[in-house]
Specification:
The protein is α/β, with parallel strands linked by helices. The chain has two domains: 33-207, Rossmann fold (3-Layer(aba) Sandwich), CATH 3.40.50.300; 233-332, Magnesium chelatase subunit I, C-Terminal domain (Helicase, Ruva Protein, domain 3, Orthogonal Bundle), CATH 1.10.8.80. The protein has helices spanning 2-22, 24-33, 41-52, 67-77, 93-97, 131-143, 178-181, 195-207, 219-231, 236-250, 258-261, 270-286, 294-305, 313-317, 322-332, and strands at 57-60, 82-86, 98-103, 108-113, 120-124, 145-148, 151-154, 160-165, 186-189, 264-266, 310-311. The strands form four sheets. Strands 2-5-8-1-9 form a five-stranded parallel β-sheet. It has a two-stranded antiparallel ribbon with strand order 3-4. Strands 6-7 form a two-stranded antiparallel sheet. Helix 12 (270-286) crosses helix 13 and helix 13 (294-305) packs antiparallel against helix 15.
């Protein structure tokens, strides 16, 4: 048994060294992004977690917080294709995925691909488009392919969708159904920068001193890194911890959370458990570690769960949001 433990310890040490080397490009990406993105470390880190976990990200924040700039800059730093789609009430699925057009000289229909065919896709104000368009986008996200006419096309690799929604403007919007929101691995809530950060932003824009993002990583490096992320070691106790957190959102009474029971209408789906495990591994990789610790799970839990926990009318009446409910769950579930 001692030999087995020694072997396991040796394997984890080797894996840790390998991941420390493989994750070196993360620092290069951060340095490049820092040229143009000021004070949004949290948003950039969540983008990287989604990218390394083969997930997608939903950003919520008021206009002007560099959401578009962030994903555009990341695509330039990775030397990848980027498309921005402004969602509007009159948008059609064909405007997103493409359509068949008649080619008169050849006397046949040919496919014209839509803006969804890029490595990085920004779905700006996704809640402004009707359900058909949202469904077309979410199908491409989930299946990683699009069918136009009788032809099926695979999405580019890597493929990341960053959707944004404006939390303060509800007129003329179509809220995303819970089943569709569940397909986003992460929902990040972006806040205002600090005064010092905003002063720097203001001076940078007034002076016209804008830095150019240079490619520091190739897309293939991201695909290789994804395979390494899957190798990050996760102990059985960490797996159980993730399951306990998710199940506590479904059955609060079994985890001695009677107060929470009246606040939750439905808990996290199995996608929540999968996403939390994948995101925790990616978070450990970004921190240049070959193993997951409970702090990794806690650090990413709000982003993975906040859009997967449904609140009751009682919670809304008391102005309690999903983050507060998740805090209570994290404070009560035993940490390994």
């Amino acid at each position: 048994m001692d030999q087995q433990q020694e072997q396991a310890t040796s394997d984890i040490r080797q894996l840790n060294e390998k991941i420390h080397l493989e994750s070196a490009f993360i620092d290069q990406l951060h340095q490049e992004m820092d040229k143009v993105i000021v004070g949004q470390k949290y948003m950039v880190e969540r983008l990287l977690i989604a990218l390394l976990s083969q997930g997608h990200i939903l950003l919520e924040g008021v206009p002007g917080l560099a959401k578009t700039l962030a994903i555009n800059s990341l695509s330039k730093a990775i030397n990848a294709d980027f498309n921005r789609i402004q969602f509007t009430p009159d948008l059609l699925p064909a405007d997103l995925i493409g359509t068949m057009i008649y080619n008169q000289p050849e006397n046949k229909f040919t496919v014209r691909k839509g803006p969804i065919f890029a490595n990085f896709v920004l779905a700006d104000e996704i809640n402004r488009a009707p359900a058909k368009v949202q469904s077309a986008l979410l199908e491409a996200m989930q299946e990683r392919q699009v069918t136009i006419g009788d032809e099926t096309f695979d999405m580019l690799k890597p493929f990341l969708v960053m959707a944004t929604q404006n939390p303060i403007e509800q007129e003329g919007t179509y809220p995303l159904p819970e089943a569709q929101v569940d397909r986003f691995m992460i929902k990040a809530v972006i806040t205002y920068p600090s005064q010092d950060e905003e002063r720097f932003i203001m001076r940078q824009n007034i002076s016209g001193d804008s830095s150019q993002i240079q490619p520091v990583v190739e897309p293939q490096r991201i695909l290789d890194a994804r395979e390494v992320v899957q190798q990050v070691y996760m102990d059985d106790k960490i797996e159980q911890y993730i399951l306990d957190i998710v199940f506590a959102t479904r059955e609060p009474q079994k985890f001695n959370l009677p107060d929470v029971q009246n606040l939750i209408s439905f808990g996290g789906s199995p996608r929540a458990s999968i996403s939390l495990a994948q995101a925790a591994k990616a978070f450990a990789f970004i921190k240049r570690r070959g193993y997951v610790v409970p702090e990794d799970v806690r650090a990413i839990a709000h982003d993975v769960l906040r859009h997967r926990v449904g609140l009751t009318y009682e919670a809304e009446a008391e102005n309690i949001d999903s983050d507060e409910v998740i805090n209570q769950v994290l404070n009560h579930v035993e940490v390994p």
